[in-house]
UniProtKB/TrEMBL annotation:
Domain of life: Bacteria
One record GO biological process: regulation of DNA-templated transcription
Xref: InterPro entries: Arc_rbn_hlx_hlx, FitA-like_RHH, Ribbon_hlx_hlx
Naturally occurring in which organism (per UniProt): Rhizobium sullae (Rhizobium hedysari)
Transmembrane stretches, start-end: none
Domain Antitoxin FitA-like ribbon-helix-helix per the UniProt entry, residue ranges: 4-41
Lineage, opening ranks: Bacteria, Pseudomonadati, Pseudomonadota, Alphaproteobacteria, Hyphomicrobiales
Any Pfam family matching the protein: FitA-like_RHH
Full protein name: Antitoxin FitA-like ribbon-helix-helix domain-containing protein
């Protein structure tokens, strides 16, 4: 699926550098932008669930934890 990406408010110096880089690689500025993004994201990987869960456990380790059955009982008792 092809899409469009618009980047606003770039510094003139950055635009000039991108155009010079594109010229060095024999590409259009647009093709160079695509290649830069492709390379930047090529090694990105989504963290797996176990890693995210471990990180969350570390972040919440010092917090007081209330077991879910206690919360459920409190909610039922309020009705």
């Amino acid at each position: 699926m092809a899409g469009n990406l618009h980047v606003r408010n770039l510094d003139d110096d950055l635009i000039a550098k991108l155009k010079m880089r594109a010229a060095r690689h024999g590409r259009s500025a647009e093709a160079e932008h695509r290649e830069i993004l492709r390379q930047a994201l090529a090694n990105e990987s989504e963290p797996d669930f176990d890693d995210l869960a471990a990180e969350l456990r570390k972040l919440t380790a010092s917090r007081k934890q209330t077991p879910s059955e206690v919360l459920l009982r409190e909610d039922r008792d309020e009705r």
